[in-house]
Design brief:
mainly alpha; 11 helices
Length: 244
C-alpha cells in the first residue's frame, strides 16, 4: 500500500479535501512576524522610535509564545509523538530527506493550522535529531513541557511592559531576571544532558550544528540579552536600556 495512504497525517488528509492550504513553515513564520511586528509597531506609535534591544526581545517573545503552544501539544499528544517518531524514522530511511525540512514545507488546510496533532508532529520530526522528545522520561521532554505551561504569561507581561512601560521598571526587571535566567540555565542544562547521553553520536555534524547548536544558541543569547536588559531596569529604575 502506498505510504501516502497508510501514513497520512491530519494535515495531509485535510489538504486533499480543502482548496485553501498553506505550507506549515510559512504559517509559523507569519505568526511570529505578526506578533513581533505588533510590538515593534506599537512601540513606534506610542514612543515614536525604534530600539534594537526591544526589537530583538519582541522577536524572542513572539517565537517563544509560538513554541509554548507546540510544547503544550507535546504534552497532550505525547502518545501520538511516540508513534509518529517511528514514521519519520522510516520516512527518512526511504527518502533520505531531512524530516524537519519535509515537515515545514508540507501543506496544511487553513481549518487545521492550530490542530494539536499537527504541531505535535514537529516534535516527532525533531526526535530524529534528539530522541528524548519521543521519551517522556527525559530532561529535554519535561523541560519543554514546563516552558510551554509556565512562560506564556510572563512572556506576555514583559512583552507589553517593554513596549508601553505599563509596569514600574523595578517590577519588570525582577520578573525579567527570573524568566530570562530560567531560559539561559535550562537551555544550558539541556545541552549538557544531550552530550552526556551521547546523542551527538547518532546524528551528523551538520545536523548537530543546525538543530542542536544553532537553534538552542538563540535561547541562550536572547536569555543573556534579556538578563542584561532586566538588570539595567532594576539598577536604573527606568526603561532607558530600551531607549526611553
Amino acid at each position: 500500500m502506498p505510504e501516502s495512504r497508510a501514513d497520512r497525517t491530519l494535515r495531509e488528509q485535510d489538504a486533499d479535501q480543502a482548496s485553501l492550504t498553506i505550507p506549515v513553515g510559512l504559517f509559523a513564520a507569519l505568526i511570529v512576524a505578526i506578533l513581533a511586528l505588533s510590538g515593534i509597531g506599537t512601540r513606534y506609535y506610542v514612543h515614536g522610535d525604534l530600539n534594537v534591544i526591544h526589537a530583538l526581545l519582541s522577536l524572542f517573545f513572539s517565537i517563544n509564545l509560538l513554541i509554548c503552544y507546540w510544547e503544550v501539544c507535546l504534552f497532550i499528544r505525547r502518545n501520538h509523538i511516540e508513534t509518529r517518531a517511528e514514521y519519520w524514522r522510516e520516512r527518512r530511511c526511504e527518502t533520505g530527506r531531512t524530516p524537519a525540512f519535509e515537515f515545514f514545507v508540507s501543506k496544511v488546510s487553513l481549518t487545521q493550522v492550530l490542530s494539536p496533532t499537527l504541531w505535535a508532529d514537529v516534535w516527532a520530526a525533531y526526535s530524529q535529531y534528539d530522541d528524548s522528545y519521543a521519551d517522556r522520561r527525559t530532561f529535554g521532554y519535561n523541560a519543554d513541557i514546563v516552558n510551554g505551561f509556565v512562560t506564556p504569561v510572563p512572556s506576555l507581561i514583559l512583552y507589553a511592559a517593554y513596549t508601553i512601560d505599563f509596569l514600574p521598571a523595578l517590577f519588570a526587571g525582577i520578573l525579567g531576571v527570573m524568566v530570562f535566567w530560567q531560559w539561559t540555565y535550562v537551555t544550558s542544562v539541556y545541552w549538557v544532558s544531550f552530550f552526556i547521553a551521547k546523542r551527538q553520536t547518532r546524528i551528523s555534524r551538520h545536523e548537530l550544528y543546525i538543530y542542536i547548536f544553532a537553534i538552542n544558541s538563540f535561547w541562550v543569547l536572547c536569555g543573556l540579552l534579556g538578563l542584561y536588559a532586566s538588570i539595567n531596569l532594576i539598577v536604573d529604575g527606568n526603561y532607558s536600556v530600551l531607549g526611553y
